[in-house]
Amino acid sequence: MFATMSRSAGLRLACLALGFVAACTDATVTGTSHVRSTTPLPAAARYIVELGGPGTPSPALTAAIHKAGGQILRVQTSFGLALVKGLSPAAASALVSTGGARAVVPDFVFKLRPASTPRIVKFAAGRSIHAKAGPASAAAVTLQWNMHVAHADSAWAHTSQGAGTHVYILDSGVDTAHQELAGKIDLTNSTSFAFAPTDSLQQNPLPYYHDVVGHGTFVSSIVTTNSVVIAGTAPQTTVTMVRVLDDSGNGSFFGLLNALVYASDLNADVINMSLGGYLNRLLSGDMDLATLLELVVQYCVSRGSVVVAAAGNESLNFNTAMTPTASYVDSLEWPGGTPHVLSVGATGPIYTGTFQDYDSIAVYSNYGSAGVGVFAPGGNEGPDSVPQASLDSIWVIGACSSATADCPGQENQYLIGIGTSFASPLVAGEAAVIKAQAGTLTPSAVEQCILKNADNITGKRPDPAYNFGRVNVLKSATASGCS
User: Tens digits of per-residue pLDDT, 215-225?
Assistant: First the structure.
């Protein structure tokens, strides 16, 4: 899945422009640099108020907000951000000139958009569902072509499998009782920055352990599992769920910023975001949000976190800013297009009577060296004639949340799906394996281990479409300087 950003349910940004790829140096946190225009603000249910520095709103700003009819809902002190509701566009704009705010931008809402509709996968009757001795003994590991193609399965025998590392997943929640994830989730530090639409005052965060959408549970099981039926990329890592999406798959930009800071403040080794959207380069408010996100990512990297994100499912060529049906020349993709974020595209096999060329760029995946750093298996679409049994074996398998309509009350069921959402966590798991092998590596060094040791698919590096290629977990985790 991937997310599209909108100001309201009926408005969607139409374009995407060239983005940035993984950092080559570690970040330092600096102030914003672009000049903000005086373009009037659009109407919004909530606004993000930049305070001009860390801390809480000053008494003067607080008074100005209240006088204008606004209410401060939440404050992010590390960056000096306040979330305010109840302001008109004019009142929100006036805070800059009269209330001491540095800038005010709308708090955009984004929504997950799937590359496909996940399907229930059924295993043969009598198949053991008891935990095995290791990931190579998982009951359905032979169906996990993604682990084989990325050489994650080979890495299990030659690494600590990510032992001692912590991967923070920003998503829709996680089913902590699923047989693959029980004991794998950090119950102490998992939390939520997602709220129900009816909770207008944002007083009751939705529980991180109740995943109605199912996306976060699926993503988590690609990173790590108990190796009952399926195996994760880094079976010995610990996942911390930071929920940012509500029960409909909607999230707020302010919540995402909070989640990133929260994860890095708890020393996350890796942060995965299988979500995202597009910002309009021509709108100052959009670019203000892009700058805020860049500052927060810089903060995460400065604290030692590797930040990984899905590249998106629009079949977009970042080099030309075109899809087969639309132009995206005036926008910026986030978070994959944010500096210091490793953007991951998806590969999958082509069906021509049989499945072959497992390193083909998936038909839905965004691609191009201008916006994607590396690729990982995420599954591919096939023609309508593809037999269901064959399709089940070449899509990606993941855990199904018991809170979904697909697997109600069942903690031992699985889904198959495709998307860059399911390629990104494989790379997040790869980063965890590398960090476990050489814990002193900086985030940029970990990224370089991933990029430089990816398999060169076309004979070119960087390649115009694949950039650094398709990841190889074994090579990256055992290469000189990476272990």
Answer: 999 999 999 99
